[in-house]
Amino acid sequence: MFADRAKIFIKSGKGGDGHVSFRRELYVPAGGPDGGNGGKGGDIIFEVDEGLNTLTDFRHVRKYVAKDGEQGGKRRCTGASAQDLVIKVPEGTVIKDFESGKVIADMSGENRREIILKGGKGGLGNMNYATSTMQAPKYAQPGQPGQELWVQLELKVIADVGLVGFPNVGKSTLLSRVSNARPKIANYHFTTLDPHLGVVDLDGSAGFVMADIPGLIEGASQGVGLGFDFLRHIERTKVLIHVVDAASTEGRDPVADIRAINDELKNYNPDLLKRPQVIAANKIDAIYREEGAEDPIERLKQAFEPEGIPVYPISGVTGQGVKELLYGVYEKLKNFDQKPVVFEKEFDTDALRAAENLPYSIEVQDGVFVVEGPRIEKMLGYTNLESEKGFAFFQKFLKDNGILDELEKAGISEGDTVRMYGLEFDYYK
Predict the structure, then answer these.
(1) 85 is in an annotated binding site
(2) What single DSSP character describes residue 267?
(3) pLDDT tens across 243-267, in order?
(4) Do the annotations mark residue 168 as ligand-binding?
(5) Is residue 393 annotated as involved in ligand binding?
């Protein structure tokens, strides 16, 4: 089965602890400290693998933990650094923070390899703490902890052109005619469950990549049917081809179908409607029009060409009009940067570690416990408190950073109010 989403847990390695030891050699009665430093923990690295085209492997392995660095040793020996853990993903994979949904990295275009979580630094051995007044320090620095995160992997198809339309309007037939793709074609709704990519070669031009996206139904932007799967893959395309059944062989209204699809695109991401669109009025070989009846092609042109959306009558079966459609699409593509659409980074995992060392303060103002400071502000900036998962992350942050303990020391009781940058909460154990 095609898999285009996966939730996995990733954790970088802990740094090795610094070592406490002293020189013990013959004829050296008062040897100084010689405890070595710990090694660095392994990084979590994501890397594009050209041989992969699905996220299926992540359905079987959901936990990826890098190894810890080795402890420091005697005689100023530094512990070995752990090997990095490299996770291979297909091109087009977007890595998101699961709690907030923000983009950590987009493995597309020139971004082929990226460190997502850095391993902890090794702790300093006691040899680093010797001074003129403390010549035999009996302590060493522990290794820095690794970072951990639940991430959502989403595979978004990289194609220049996306074929959109309701099920059974002929998208797969069109793709198989104009490219090297061979999707399964049958007279059933939702026959295309996987996105199919095909390279379209045009005489005298560079050609382009076309994707047949899974069929759409109304309510897709709310996740009905294959909705999110469908819409996720459209986000990278530069030009959209609406494929409609101009012959209404199943009683569908092609004008209403295009309006419905554009409504779903708008609800999911309004920017999608800014992409150039063309209409492929398919199945003209099956049009039967009684004398005096309205021409369905003219009806489509009157409805959409005033909006700047050209209509191309075609037959995916006979090939009629297909060449004109492809060259019309290519003319629109020429105005675009040929680099694939790459999503901007929204979530910096380095900030997670930086926040751990930032200060914060707790004050009592008119019976309200006010918690503020850079550590709190940075954490709130990366957390969606409106979601259940985000609020759980928020509570864990307060506990792990000792903030709940500090509130207890400040005398907080159940039912008291805690305020953080305009947000207020009732405190309960």
Answers:
(1) no
(2) H
(3) 888 887 777 888 888 898 888 888 8
(4) yes
(5) no
DSSP, residue by residue, 338-363: SSPP-PPP---HHHHHHHHTS--EEE
Burial zone of 343 (CB within 10 Å; 0-12 exposed, 13-18 middle, 19+ buried): middle
Q: Is the pTM of this model over 0.85?
A: no
214 in a labelled binding site: yes
Q: For residues 126 and 365, what is the distance between their CA atoms, to the nearest angstrom? A: 44
Q: Is 411 a known ligand-binding residue?
A: no
- How many angstroms separate the CA atoms of 165 and 342, rounded? 24
Residue 349 counted as an annotated binding residue: no
Cβ-based neighbour number of residue 266 at 10 Å: 13
**372 DSSP β-pair partners:** 361
The answer to whether residues 216 and 226 touch, using CB atoms and an 8 Å cutoff, is yes
190 is in an annotated binding site: yes
Q: Smallest Cα–Cα separation from 214: which of 182, 185, 191?
A: 191
193 annotated binding-site participant? yes
Determine which helix (DSSP H) or strand (DSSP E) holds 113, and give its type and residue range: strand 113-117
Q: Is 315 annotated as a binding residue?
A: yes
Kindly report, residue by residue over 106-146, the tens digit of the pLDDT. Answer: 888 888 999 999 998 898 888 887 777 777 788 788 888 88
Kind plus residue range of the DSSP H or E element containing 283? none
Which residue reads 């391993």 in tokens?
Answer: 119
